[in-house]
Amino acid sequence: QALPSDLMPGDTPIKVCVIDSGYDINHHDLPGYDRVTGVSQTGDLWDFPGDDHGTHVAGTIAALDNGIGVVGVHRGSNLSLHIVKVFNDNGDWSYASDLVDAIDSCVSAGAKIASMSLGGDYSSLESEAFDEARNAGILSVAAAGNSGNSAYSYPASYDSVVSIAATDASNSLAGFSQRNNQVELAAPGVDVESTVIGNGYASFGGTSMATPHVSAVAALVWSHH
Question: Which residues form the catalytic set?
Answer without folding.
Answer: 20, 53, 208
